[in-house]
Known about the structure:
Blueprint: E1 2-6, H1 14-24, E2 32-36, H2 42-56, H3 62-75, H4 82-99, H5 104-128, E3 133-136, E4 144-145, H6 158-171, E5 175-179, E6 182-185, E7 190-192, H7 197-208, E8 213-218, E9 239-241, H8 242-250, H9 262-267, E10 271-275, E11 284-287, E12 296-311, H10 321-331, E13 336-341, E14 345-351, H11 357-363, E15 368-382, H12 387-401, E16 407-410, E17 416-422, H13 426-438
Amino acid sequence: MIVMKFGGSSLANEARIRHVAELVKPELPRKPVLVVSALGDTTDHLLEAAVTALETGIVSIEGITALHKHTIQELNIDVPKIMPLLAELQILLVGISLVKELTGKTKDYLVSFGERLAARIVAAYCQSAGIEATALDAWEGGFVSDSHFTAAELVPESWDLIPAKILPLIDAGILPVLTGFIAQDRQGAITTLGRGGSDLSATMIAAACKAEEVQIWKDVDGILTADPRIVPEAWPVEAVTYEEAAELAYFGAQVLHPRAMQPCMRTKTPVWIKNSYNPQARGTQIVARLEKKRPVLGITSRNQITLVDIVSTRMLGQPGFLAELFADFAKYGISVDMVATSEVSVSLTLDAAYDLDLLKKDLSRIADVEIKAGKAIVTIIGDVDKSSEILQQAFGVCAALGIPVQMVSHGASKVNISFIVNDTQSVEVVQGLHKHFFGAPILEGRTTCI
């Protein structure tokens, strides 16, 4: 058994849906399960419709209805379950317009229509193409979550419920087409699984059902050595470990969210990142362990970072100082990314979206605080055994570019080296590092990292 997940860009129109069916057909002997996202930008259009209903009282789903009806017409299929869903959506939006409220619970119910409509259309087309298929809402496939709306977590019993619901269909020769991204809580309310939710749906099915592998079909050739918008010559990495993929994703490579890999990490199920627009491309395989790999696998960056420098002589030999310090961050719900400490100082990075005025006031009671906005984190994902050489060369590249490094983090993760530069310098640094490690070295002489 394998799991094949297709995102919105892979289901953007009727031509893409036909293409998906063509990708599925050769895999039928491997007993696939399909996980689908909403068609194209449907989720955004649903949220826009809700905001319009909330703010103006106008209820309109003409665009959403037209897209799905047009897709059905072009595919020349009959999907009788579509109209009741669209009628249900209309009623929900009328309720939002009257109550003038859009809670997390209502928002999850609202956006679920995208995946539910898509699953029914894809299953119906597969049927018309000679593939025995059936559409399942996630809860019909065993997905049960907590009640943390907009960012729900699957509950432990899902591990047993999912195979109990899906494997009988597989054994009967039926292709299950499941909605990604959504679930139901124990009270029957629809929830969404938050960031990376559709990919998490796929990896959860694969892990719970002990599948051979899971294929995540996107619009890129795999995990690349750098962001192609910054480095056009970046190329796909053939294979990475779960830990390396998680670090790449966390520090800017937005191909697969780290939480989506957790089920497969637990069962060591291989994950493939494939391109539905270029299926001949090998893609990137994500596995538990690699025998041999390049010293440097990829370079990422995250902009709009704030650097906070905290200095206090009270830190010296003072038990509990750091606990007191981080309690202030927790008090205001502020998540810390990178941390570097010395005897009397702490430097850390935060997302620029946070309002730090109250935090700075609290911290100023125990330390001198300096907040520096407009920073970026540049991260090198590589082999820990080569970290000294990688660090030496990375700093050499920055020196050659005339760009000072303002903070370094290395050691907490065995696969990443991260440092801070100005926001305006991150593109130049990433391009320089990529050229050095993957192209013509900037520093004189060949290096062991090439």
